[in-house]
Amino acid sequence: GPAFALENAEAKGLDQLKRQAETCTRCDLYKNATQLVFGEGPPAAEIVLVGEQPGDKEDLAGKPFVGPAGRLLDQCLKQAGIDRSRCYVTNAVKHFKFEPRGKRRMHSKPNAGEIQRCAWWLGAELDILQPKLVVALGATALYSLLGPKVKVTVERGQVLQAANHPPVLVTIHPSYLLRIRDEEDARANREHFVRDLAKAVAFQ
Ligand code: URA
Question: Domain Uracil-DNA glycosylase-like: where (predicted)?
């Protein structure tokens, strides 16, 4: 039926987009990364999750959110009643940015120019997917989606409606939870994150 044909067109569009992104030189991050980490998930997904950038594990696997932050995200989504396998999962920046520290590669934050240049790809993914909801996981995702004026600390837990854009649910990045040392603080923040994610259930 037409729904199936549309899904096929979306799948083809995303495949083509990924192949184009594999040779992207809009910023310099492709030079040191192992490979592009593009978005992944069903083309018919109603919810798109947007992270910051691939980490060490994602850079090696070529898949988004497969490392420690990804495992935590999976657990929190499940607790919130969201099926990750029905979501399209992607990042604001699609190459791993790092500083070598001995044998280790330490995550380093993408700058405004890198986020802006990569936003073209995220925009193209959203144009194809036309989701009911986009979940911004942290400040980099939010900056890429809605620009410099919108702050996580102010808008956390809100679903923002912008013109010519799917609604955006604002929350933190799961890596933030991994950095909290105090056990009680970590537990409370994790519960808050699950409460934020639960606001996406109605869009599933
Ligand atoms: N952190 C992110 O923002 N994205 C990933 O894919 C993995 C870790």
Answer: 38-198
Distance 4 CA to ligand 1 centre (A): 31
Query: Domain spanning 2-203 has what CATH number?
Result: 3.40.470.10
The model's pLDDT over 49-72, given as tens digits with 9 standing for 90+, comes to 999 999 999 999 999 999 999 999
Query: How far is it, in rounded angstroms, from Cα 72 to Cα 103?
Result: 25
Each residue's pLDDT tens digit, 149-159: 999 999 999 99
DSSP code at position 49 = E
Cα–Cα distance for residue pair 142/165, rounded to 1 Å: 13
Residue ranges around ligand 1 (CB below 6 Å)? 51-55, 58, 64-65, 67, 69-70, 91, 175
Q: Domain boundaries in the chain?
A: 2-203
Rounded CA separation 124/26 (Å): 15
pTM, whole model, 2 decimals? 0.97
> Which of 87, 175, 178 for mutating ligand 1's site (highest number of atoms within 8 Å of CB)?
175
Q: Compute the distance from residue 60 Cα to the ligand 1 centre, in Å.
A: 12
